[in-house]
Write a structure and sequence with these properties.
- 3 copies of one chain form a homotrimer.
- With about 140 residues, chain A is mainly β.
- Chain A has a single domain, classed as UDP N-Acetylglucosamine Acyltransferase, domain 1 (3 Solenoid), CATH 2.160.10.
- In chain A, about 0% of the residues lie in helices and about 30% in strands.
- Chain A contains no helices and 19 strands.
- In chain A, the strands form 4 sheets. Chain A has an 8-stranded mixed sheet with strand order 1-4-7-10-13-16-18-19, with no helix packed on it.
- In chain A, a hairpin with a 4-residue loop joins strand 18 and strand 19.
- At the A-B interface, loops of A face loops of B.
Chain lengths: ~140, ~140, ~140
């Protein structure tokens, strides 16, 4: 379900069971897997990989080359897969990898190149490998 | 050589000199370079880059966005390129980068987002940047 | 502007306002954004993401899966975007991410998997997350 208001840069692979919101933009070379839900006004960068089990909230900003996952100890049977939630307004920098089963809170920010191994509370800024809370935002 | 039992999600770039085993699956946006060998039943995720000089063993599981290399101090003449071996049953999480000339042992496991700078013995679990041995597997 | 001497492996997305030098090679699944400039004889690996605001110098070597950025706190209005300069002869290993507004000096080298958060002086070798100066090059 891709609404007419969405902007998709080819080539992309978007499974037909994915639900894409209004005014979503999706960069080239991105794969959106089965049953993924992407909220209105979200922006998904180029080269992203978003498999089944991931939900992206309204107005979220996902940088280029972000990778999401659903299987902690692959390959697992599908009933062991975990869900990932990127809340409304969250912003992920380029090249972020998110482990399975995590939630990134509303309006949280994740630095470029981070590997997210824990859920991130709303409004916080995290960065690093593994990602940790950043006390003060660098200017 | 792509056997009929292989499942390839387009678009992929697979060089004709690559040897792909039976029942292999390869995700979209993956490049498999010249003379790469992939063993039977291996699973290669989307967005992987597997250049010349890499061998993937039987039943290995390579997560999305894994990157392999063959040239330690690029650009080198081809006779300086090194070979990388991913042994049978090894499992690499998403977004792993493997430096040239390394071997990942049989049934070893590598955490998502790791950069592998040393060879990994069979059966061990490594993670991080650079990857180091994890003593106990997290539940 | 893609000169006849350039070698481009499809599929690539190259914006028509990008300026590509003579003898440049660009790997598959790479995106080159608007107004990007790439100097003569540069080599750009597969799966790279090079957005507007980035300049790649003559003879630079950009490994596979390198990611460049232009917006420090996305999404910003375009007048806040920063420029990135990769100087002539610089070499970036695989899977390097470069934050906005940085300069990588002439003939500098960046290790695979690094996240570059500071500008790198000419001729130095940096690696890690975040990237730091490496005193002696490993053999």
């Amino acid at each position: 379900m891709i609404p007419a208001s969405a902007r998709i840069w080819p080539p992309c692979n978007i499974y037909s069971s994915a639900e894409i919101g209004e005014n979503v933009s999706i960069g080239a070379f991105t794969e959106i897997g089965p049953s993924v839900r992407i909220g209105n006004d979200a922006r998904i960068g180029a080269h992203c990989f978003i498999p089944e089990g991931v939900t992206i909230g309204e107005g979220a900003w996902i940088g280029p080359r972000c990778t999401f996952t659903n299987d902690r100890f692959p390959p697992s049977p599908k009933d062991k897969w975990e869900t990932t939630v990127i809340s409304a307004g969250a912003r992920l920098g380029a090249s972020v990898t998110v482990l399975p089963g995590k939630t990134i809170g509303k309006d949280a920010m994740v630095g470029a190149g981070s590997v997210v191994t824990k859920s991130i509370p709303p409004g916080e800024t995290w960065a690093g490998v593994p990602a940790r809370k950043i006390k003060k935002r660098r200017k």
